Amino acid sequence: MDDGSTGNPHAVPPGSNQPGMIPNKPQTLQDEQSQQNKYSIPGILHFIQHEWARFEMERAHWEVERAELQARIAFLQGERKGQENLKRDLVRRIKMLEYALKQERAKYHKLKYGTELNQGEMRPPTPPSDEERETDSPLSQNSQVTWRQGRQLLRQYLQEIGYSDTILDVRSNRVRTLLGLTPNESTKQDGEAGEVLVNGEQEREARRDADRRPAEKKRAGIPEIDSEASVLATFDFLSSEAVDDEDEENLSDGEEDGGAADDESEDREQRRRREKGKKALVQMMENESLAGMEDVLADPETEEALAEFDFLVSEAGEGAGEAKSTDGAEWGLDKSPTTEEWAMDKNLLNKLKEEFKKERKSKKGAKRPNRSTLQAMLANLGGDDDIVMPAGGPPRTAINNPDLGPLDEPRKEGPRRAVLGVGGPEEESLEAALGLGDLAGLTVTNEAEPLQYDVAATKEAFRKTWNPKYTLRSHFDAVRALAFHPIEPVLITASEDHTLKMWNLQKTVPAKKSASLDVEPIYTFRAHSGPVTCLCVSSNGDQCYSGSTDSTIRCWNIPSPNIDPYDAFDPTVLGQALVGHTDAIWGVTIHSVKQQLLSCSADSTVRLWSLQNKSPLLNTYTAEKDDGAPTSVDFVRCELSQMVAAYSSSVAVLYDLETAQPVAKLDARQGSDSGVSSQINRVVAHPTLPITITAHEDRHIKFFDNNSGKMVNTMVAHLDAVTSLAVDPNGLYLLSGSHDCSIRLWNLDSKTCVQEITSHRKKFDESIFDVAFHPSKPYIASAGADALAKVFV
Amino acid sequence: MVSPKSKMAAATEDPAILRRNRPGTKAQDFYSWPYEPFEEMDSTLAVQQFIQQNIRQDHNNIDKILEPPEGQDEGVWKYEHLRQFCLELNGLAVKLQVNTECNPETCTQMTATEQWIFLCAAHKTPKECPAIDYTRHTLDGAASLLNSNKYFPSRVSIKESSVAKLGSVCRRIYRIFSHAYYHHRNIFDEFENETCLCKRFTVFVTKYNLMSKDNLIVPILEEGPGESEA
């Protein structure tokens, strides 16, 4: 950078106005004078010698110091130049990528819609520095008022985080004594500040450069360069904040402090950086996306601090300028770069506030700040009030030990991370205005939205009313069974049209004139040669099992929820068939811990299958003659060794899985309406309590105590046969479906109906075949004879 | 007896009759209930019920199956039949798929006679899918279209513009028959024996003029149009 040598306050030619020289000359004069005055010669000589020796010593001291500083300056200048080049290179690369992406988008758009995408800013990358300069200029007219306001704000925040005036004073004094600077230093400041005003842009670039350097260093190892860079960008802001505070201090302390300011702030900056490095370490531990900050720690800290040095000096220079602003007209010039920065902040403030609020809700989404964040933060260089770190202790004393207490600050990171995660369309305009790059438009925080939804949804998981949201139409005949994926918003349906279909509820087709969304199936499972009657999904969501009237149970390896519905046929989806039953299968249920499957069939047997063994059939449970055919089966969830099977004779039997002997008979025959078959259509075991719930053809739902075998509750639940039951994962609500076309939600505690939804139409005398709760998300679903499945939220 | 609707339906017959496939029903008893006259069906799915009932009664009686009840809207009638064809074609697709009978190695393209290679229309740009993929994609695409809320929002009345879509569905799914016929004859014969589906389909598209006779290349009818080309 061209201004490198002059931009530094220490770059004054040796001897020109050296502090050591000034007192020295008068002293020699005095020496002669004192000889003329007839004092005691030896005394005078002694005094002179003493004085001279003292001055010489001081001078030597100053000389050494000066040499040191000059060496340092040279080093820093070299460093900065290197970084400048690096930055240019990076910016060029970003621009190129950006351009390439835009062209890709345009191409995609053209292919998709056949029209040219109207991207106003489609242009090949331009040199970044020009652009920055361009955009900075219009902001320079902003008044000093905004600047002052911003400064006030920052001061406030600094205080909040613990940098009180006293601390600042103490520290500045300490630094001053350490450096032993004289008031003369401030004259250098003048020159320096003048440089700053001329070279404001370059200074800022240099800062950014400094920020990017560590990012670049880590590039090889860490993919999340951007997040790191954005962290650094935040640091940048904080540093300027610190400097600003310094300014305020200078105002009160008077002119002589001006010189100290830069060195002091440098010193402090080093400390801050280290502190932040530590915080970043914390962040890193939580989230490796922010890795790379260890650089700041592991790498000699001096290097980092030095990288920051130039920038600090310039800022401090500005600060000094502010302190002196009453003195001379020359300082008026100084304000333009500073004002620019503050004016920018003002513009950003509100938008960022909004985003911050939004992001705070979904911290998860913010964990991985994306590319646009970098740009946003860069745009924010001057900082704004939202990025101030919340809650902080007084400055650390043990700053030199990076291992010390990095863990006690993780709370701070939350909101900050959230801020780092900002991104999205709102920024785009802003970004465009600032001209800092169109990167903000490149990526949209896709993650944030679904996550946000999740957060909101979980809260409302058991609100009072469920509303239809998705209608799943693609089956040609009655949907007999359905089951949710354990985690994803994915549903699998089994139909009398011999197929199963998988639906991703997040891939919706906007439906016209309808409140409910249409979903297209993403996969069709074909292999059964008869109506599919029952279905269950493993708890990891990798497999599902379906039973059919063709007497087979099919294992399916569930394809990815993001599969293309019109992909090539993948034979691996079709797993083995569990063959053994000799008639229609009517129920399957899985125990994921034991990796076992239970099935019941019209051949009057219930069978237990191992999902791992080569010979899968483990056991067969044959009912007594007058029990009828098993209609439904379930594992007893709170007693691993038992299962319950329901029979068409309205008896449910608890079996010991090992011995295949009945443990208890749950007889529902007493008190049922005569005439109408009171067969059990579905049996479910409560997920946590030793309670068995049965759904009957005679409209009843009955509750049994597994231990006593006694019926503990019975109720007429529907207007027609109850066909299906589902208990929510927490065991608080029961969902029932009936051929009366409705599904009902029951409070298991009070046994009262919480909600009724009319859901499906009749085909012959059948309407609803199955209902289900999503194991982890607030969805319920119903399967109907009208070939539809519906999902409610 | 139980719900108002079933009461009405059952009013003229034995009140105990509920046409249900209850859990535990044996496979052979599936859908084995007394015949319900079309006039007594009060469901919105009456046409489907009626068609399925006739097919179950005797799948060889094609004329009866294809004979619409009096006053039946022809669009709905064709639509419901096409749904049923697609449903039953699943059976053929399964047979082709089982034991990799029809796989991407042996049937790299969807062909019947040497005359045409059919391109799969399920993709944005039609492409030469292997026959088994073509079959699956075509059935999935047909399911998607026939269940589309946009074109077929109701199963009681259908817009004329949507009825026009049925022809192309017919043409596409017919290729599954023709591919099976010319490349997997044993499967085709086995399937045809069980269902008479191709024959029924040929009669259906001929009756309702949904496909040009030149395209009916499977010689299934004794004196059918396809015979000349076979």
Q: What would you note in describing this structure?
A:
The complex is a heterodimer of chains A (793) and B (230). Chain A has 793 residues and is of the alpha+beta class. Helix content of chain A is 41%, strand content 22%. Chain A is built from 16 helices and 28 strands. In chain A, helix 5 packs across helix 8 and helix 7 (225-253) packs across helix 10 (301-323). Chain A is elongated and about 140 Å long. Chain B is an all-alpha fold. A two-stranded antiparallel sheet of chain B has the order 1-2. The relative contact order of chain B is 0.11.
Tally of helical segments of chain B: 9
Strand content of chain B: under 5%
The backbone outline of chain A, from C-alpha atoms, is elongated
User: In which range does the helix fraction of chain A lie?
Assistant: 40-55%
Task: Report the end-to-end length of chain A measured between terminal Cα atoms.
Answer: 60 Å
Number of strands of chain A: 28
How many individual helices of chain A? 16
Query: How many E-type strands of chain B?
Result: 2
